[in-house]
Amino acid sequence: MPSMMTVLLRSFRRSRDAASAVEFAIVVPLFVMLVFGIVVYGSWLGMMHSVQQLAAEAARTSIGGLTEAERASLARAYITGNAGSYPLLTPTKLTVVAQTSSSDANVFTVTVTYDATGSLISTLPTFVPAPSPHISRSAAIPRGGY
Asked: What is the model's pTM?
């Protein structure tokens, strides 16, 4: 006749009552990390796209200026007037550099830099590797066919 300990061990090996709980405990942390990663990188890519759009539109707007100072002024005015329409960006955290390209005198370059410190990507848990909080995008536009 088997001992009481042997009977308990056989019964324990056949029991499946807690298998779902163990599987859940293994899978949930990975799933949560995946969801947070999607949120963090999705918001970062949204911010990056918004900064790129602002730089491109500011460069297109700046082409109407006759002097470099007027072009820079038009680019800054465009960004000041339209940055508020991008929901992921805080307009006060934008920096604009608009100037003639150092490599080609017929190209005007607008560089927009955004400091995402304190935004959604820095407030989420640190177990998801966060991207850089400094986003910088440029757009260059030639002065025209002369």
From this structure: 0.76
